[in-house]
Amino acid sequence: MREAELQAMAALEPGECRAMIAYVNKFMNALERRIGGLEV
C-alpha cells in the first residue's frame, strides 16, 4: 500500500474503510483470475 492510500484510508469512517478494502480485494481477485487464465 502506498503512503497516500493509507492516509486516505485513515480519513474514512471504519465502515467505509472496510467497504473500500472489500472492493479492492474483489478487484485484485478478478485481476489475478484473469492473469491466471492467460498463463494457462
Features:
40 residues; mainly alpha; 2 helices
How would you sum up this structure, described in words?
It comes from Bifidobacterium pseudolongum subsp. globosum. This is Transcriptional regulator. The model has no long low-confidence stretch (mean pLDDT 84). This protein has one domain. With 40 residues, the protein is mainly α. The termini are far apart. Helices cover 88% and strands 0% of the residues.
Summarize the SSE layout with pairings:
Blueprint (H helix, E strand, L loop, with lengths): L2 H9 L2 H26 L1
Protein name: Transcriptional regulator
Fraction of residues in β-strands: under 5%
Number of domains: 1
Instruction: Give the averaged pLDDT, no decimals.
Output: 84
Query: What is the N-to-C succession of helices and strands?
Result: HH
Task: Give the N-terminus to C-terminus distance in angstroms.
Answer: 29 Å
Name the helicity range.
over 70%
Number of helices: 2
Shape: elongated
Give the biggest sheet: none
Low-confidence runs: none
Structural class: mainly alpha
Q: What integer value in Å does the Rg equal? A: 13 Å
The total count of strands amounts to: 0
Protein name: Transcriptional regulator
